[in-house]
Write a structure and sequence with these properties.
Helix content: 40-55%
Order of helices and strands: EHEHEHEHEHEHHE
Oligomer: single chain
Number of helices: 7
CATH topology: Rossmann fold
Largest sheet: 7 strands, parallel
CATH superfamily: NAD(P)-binding Rossmann-like Domain
Number of strands: 7
Radius of gyration: 17 Å
Distance between the termini: 31 Å
Length: about 240
């Protein structure tokens, strides 16, 4: 698929990986709908940067814990503004740690609503709203933990494992019109609240002996979007951390 002139919806697109992906796709000529929850100022900055690149952009505020209604609103507002949506990138994510004995129902529901449920209903809404779409892409941002679970971040890891399963199932369900793939990043950015030292401490444990950067995820997104014969794939961008 030629990215030039395509319309992309990206959740969590105002900050961190989402922002890097959004800017990268705008540089390739795409128009972008950026979803955000609380990062209004950052969303506006990202919109301005995209418009400076000569592309159109709009920001939509929504709380993905209300997954069904938020999904409907995001896709509908994007279509009202651009007239179509070609690509959905499910990037928004919650990454919070709790010890097994302290995991609450609220912790569980929050992670599953944002990381998994919203991705499903956004995908469903895209297909229902865009039945006339000739070709399309859905890319889910998963995590290497989703294919190699560990003891830490238990609920988060379960959501990413389920997201990977959903990717493969939707690839079958939506073929041949829509390609569905996932990217499983490794150590790219420190978790919110952590300094760069967090990444420095784990770099030596990664086979390629370094951590990654957001541009490498953005490049992987472009690779999948430009492909015409890849679907149901989980692309690890992790330096081999999942091995």
């Amino acid at each position: 698929m030629d990215i030039q002139g395509q319309v992309i919806v990206i959740t969590g697109g105002a900050v961190r990986l989402g922002r890097s992906i959004a800017i990268s796709l705008a540089k390739a000529g795409a128009d972008v709908c950026i979803h955000y929850r609380t990062s209004k100022d950052q969303a506006e900055e990202t919109i301005n940067q995209i418009e400076d690149l000569g592309c159109k952009a709009v920001a939509v505020q929504a709380d993905l814990t209300d997954s069904v209604s938020s999904s409907r609103m995001i896709i509908q507002e994007a279509i009202e503004y651009f007239g179509k949506v070609d690509i959905l990138i499910n990037n928004a994510s919650v990454f919070e740690e709790e010890q097994f004995g302290e995991i609450s129902e609220e912790h569980w529901d929050h992670h599953f609503s944002v990381n998994l449920k919203s991705a499903f209903f956004l995908s469903q809404e895209l297909v229902q709203q865009q039945e006339f779409l000739k070709r399309g892409h859905i890319i889910n941002i998963a995590d290497w933990r989703g294919t190699r679970p560990r003891q830490d971040h238990l609920v988060y890891t379960m959501t990413k494992s389920a997201l990977i399963t959903m990717t493969k199932s939707l690839a079958l369900e939506l073929a041949p019109k829509i390609q569905v793939n996932a990217i499983a990043p490794g150590a790219i950015l420190p978790p919110p609240g952590e300094s760069k030292n967090y990444l420095d401490k784990i770099a030596g444990k990664i086979p390629l002996n370094r951590t990654g950067n957001p541009d490498e995820i953005a490049n992987a997104v472009q690779y999948l979007l430009q492909s015409e014969f890849i679907t149901g794939e989980i692309l690890h961008v992790s330096g081999g951390q999942q091995l």
